[in-house]
Amino acid sequence: MKPMNANELLAGLALARPVPITAVVTDSRKVIPGCVFVCFPGERVDGHDYAVAAYKAGAEYIIANHPVEGVPEDHLVICPSSHRAMIRMASNYRMLFSPLMIGVTGSVGKTTTKEFCYAVLSAFGNTLKTEGNQNNEIGLPNTLFRLEDTTEYAVVEMGMSNLGEIARLTRTARPSAGIITKIGVSHLENLGSRENILKAKLEICQGLPDGAPLVLNADDDLLPTATLPDRLRPVWFGIEAQNAEVRAENIRPAGNGTAFTLIDSGAGEIERYEVTIPTVGNHTVSDALAAYAAATRLGLDHARAAQALSRYKTTGMRQNIVRHGGVTFIEDCYNASPDSMKAALSILKDQTPGEGGRRIALLGDMLELGTASESAHRQTGEWAAQNADILVAYGPLSTAMAQEAANRGISAVHCQTAQEVVEYLRRTLRPGDVVLAKASHAMKLEDVLAALYAELPNT
What's the pTM? Predict the structure, then answer.
């Protein structure tokens, strides 16, 4: 973080002294002299319990929801919402910089699209990106606090669980261009309908300047029906939609990746670029198109941007392919929704098992689907039957998934616990098998895989 005077950083929160602030932290272990420490009350840990220690360690200001004994009043900022305090400070800090910035939201594919944006932007200059899943009212400010004078480009991911959240995030980040990847069913439990999810995602428009590109998925069934602000420039991308401004044709496997022809008709004359990306699945092609569309509509060279898509690198457990005991595993454990389950299962179907091998889908519960949960899990069971030879369904909600798959004729087993999953696969797997592992992040499928890998032979 570039040092910023406290009276400027805390503007709108408190009347502060013009002393330099060197960092904003929410973890007491990261407190340094001259920082602002923000207390967050949690279910297991309350940051207020660490406020005095943070002050004694050199924190210049403590942001708290109530008075804290041991912290002097002139070093204490009382704010009813720690989240809003983070947003306010990040907004004030953001005003110091003017990088070209892309904001990414959507129900599916946000992180992959963000990484494709980073691959393109970083080919042109020093680029900042959201790390991991830092896409909420704590994570996005933490990303913005990493802006420096040398930052030329940035890409930030914006997630939400309720209406109003993306509006606050985008007004804070003020991106130069926006991307909406897809309108799915994640967060139906809170928002009630896909129409409300669409409304929430469109809040990204509130932070975009007049004339900014708004990059939208033409293959989505809801986005083309949306009423968009006249002051923004819509840029449509797609694979199926023939009227999309940025399209992909001739999609084909290329080693461990995918090759396709990128067609750009936005400049009047049709431009064609041959692209190879190190990912599999048409949904990742769509994510690459979105990144290209946003970067080029911000003025970056089209040919260089198309070529830079090949620089994409996977992060975390997203379509990470590893091999253990002669078995190929597709680790896709970061998160799951019906749309991403369908896409991942199509990737499994495209894999060629070794001699005597089978396609096995290890699928766990999808969360936050509300009343659509059972139907979504049954639909996923149907897709599993179409794309896999064996389904291993994990978690209480996945009972319906296993039942539906079994009804449609494939071998399906339901496991309630991680230990059951490990034991079943340890007995069942054989060399040549291909296993897709996918579930909502809270299911901790990465821990299940780690336990399973320890049980398999090293060769």
Answer: 0.86
